[in-house]
Amino acid sequence: MTSPGSILIVGASAAGLSTAEALRRHGYQGRLTFLDAEPHLPYDRPPLSKQLLSGAWEPPRVQLRGQAQLDALHAEFVLGEPAVALDPAERAVTTVSGRVLRGDVVVIATGLTPLRLPGQDHLEGVHVLRALDDALALRHALSAGTRLVVVGEGVLGAEIAATARTLNLEVTLAGMGGTLLNDQLGQVIGAMLAEKHAERGVRLRLGVAIEELTGAAGRVTGVRPASGEFLPADMVVVAIGSRPATGWLEGSGLPWATVWSATRDAVPPRGCTPSATWPPSSTKGSAGGCVWRTAPTPPSRRRWWRPTSSAPTARTRRSLTSGPTSTTSRSRRTACRRRRPR
Ligand SMILES: Cc1cc2nc3c(=O)[nH]c(=O)nc-3n(C[C@H](O)[C@H](O)[C@H](O)COP(=O)(O)OP(=O)(O)OC[C@H]3O[C@@H](n4cnc5c(N)ncnc54)[C@H](O)[C@@H]3O)c2cc1C
Q1: Is residue 174 assigned to a domain?
Q2: Does residue 261's CB lie within 6 angstroms of at least one atom of ligand 1?
Q3: What tens digit of pLDDT does each residue of 260-274 get?
Q4: Contact predicate 93/100, CB 8 Å
Q5: Cα of 76 from ligand 1 centre, angstroms
Q6: Is the beta carbon of 295 within 6 A of some atom in ligand 1?
């Protein structure tokens, strides 16, 4: 088999960089080009919600490789140019500026993109945390505000809440799961983590769907869970999961691109679990649906459409501050269940 003359890697992060390094390690001598939507050389995301968010580290420290190591790859980096289309037959990728890059082989390593709540993009003060620039924007907001609400009781939400508490902010963590990280760690360990967060001053509102982000003059003012309570906030972080960043592959003819880009459809890809529902009460009448968490969840944990009947342990009861899930959110979950393909 002949070696391809050129390889175009779309996505210059951990996966794309490892691919290039492995190729060179195995003797590949052809042309290597990276294309990435972000303007930064490859960096590590795990510190974004920890050391970088807390201010302990500055951006240069999160770089995955030093300049000498990158130079040794003899690769071209085209940065700050999102890919918007792929022509598989031509092996051609078009960028947002209209530039066309070609490779004998095209590697798709575009990772994930965060799920959003409806309406959040129109409100200032609502953040997601996926990229370095997101982390810097959130860090700046944390230094200027006092009340943070984190929506999402998964790993990222829990990390952000914990980091924000070290900065002495008033932090509320709200999510649909009955404990923290329930999907990843189960109820017992999740409840222990919830207890730790509560001990450190994180206000927990668990087991509630977030119905609405509220705002005034274009700025977020708080979050309204299905329980009807109002959680005031100067800033909100939405950490409700992510989906593959494959929107740019729509129309390419790649079959899975269509499946994964249908994230907001009422019918989820098999094995996905809904992580939020809409419309929120403020936008009733608009097209409704479910946001689907893309990580498959074992059937035993699919509580969203089959709520567990097991009673919380004494420890769980002590550590959870929220009341039972409202009828409204339960009926929405039922609606989601009905739309699920057989
Ligand atoms: C805040 C945070 C904390 C984390 N903490 C941990 C942790 O503690 N432990 C752990 O194991 N994992 C952690 N992770 C997960 C880990 O960072 C990811 O698993 C890893 O980044 C995946 O690498 P990747 O290269 O597949 O995708 P990504 O890192 O998502 O990179 C994809 C790249 O593709 C680019 N891209 C996307 N769309 C386009 C487009 N259309 N055109 C061009 N470029 C595009 C993006 O800009 C990005 O640079 C964390 C992630 C985040 C966001």
Answers
A1: yes
A2: no
A3: 544 433 333 333 333
A4: yes
A5: 20
A6: no
